[in-house]
Amino acid sequence: MTTEYQILTLLVGVPLLYSLGGMGFHKLPRRLGIPLLLLMVSLWTGSLSLKVALGIGATLPIHCLGYGENHNWLERLIYAFGLSLPTLIISFNWWIIFPPVIFISTWILSNNKKTAGLFNWRICEFLVGASVGILWSQILC
Questions:
Q1: How far is 131 from 84, CA to CA, in rounded Å?
Q2: Which of 63, 89, 99, 128 could be stapled to 83 by a disulfide with Cβ–Cβ 3.0 to 4.6 Å?
Q3: Residue 48 — φ and ψ, nearest 5°?
């Protein structure tokens, strides 16, 4: 199989799991599903190494952090940058910029009365998940 299948798996799977993980008490798809998907794709591509395993493992505590309305901006910024930072354990890629920018931007847009109708949180979750999926696809594939 070609790398295209692995990239598509991440481009579809990560946003789906990220969005499912935001639904009420069902946090496991985001917290455990995304790291498991990353692990499966790294096995599939043959890219699993100690650095890759450590990078994937570093996503576990990040996806457990809170960022909602009950959290302050420092916590949100830690979460936002934490979405990308584990990939630095493996290698640098310019896509590292996008998950924090998209998370912060869409969080603000979804919580602004003027733009919340256009940017409801389901759309924001998908966009954030897609940016994470793109980043990891460029790291693993």
A1: 9
A2: 99
A3: -65, 125
* 94: its two tokens: 């310019």
Contact yes or no for 86/99 (Cβ under 8 A): no
- Can you give the residue range of the structural domain that contains 17? 3-140
E strand or H helix that includes residue 110: helix 98-110
Domain count, the chain: 1
* One-letter identity of residue 103: F
HSE (CB half, 13 Å, CA atoms) of 135? 32
Q: Which helix (H) or strand (E) holds 124?
A: helix 121-140
d(CA 133, CA 131): 5
Asked if 33 contacts 21 with a C-beta cutoff of 8 angstroms, the reply is yes
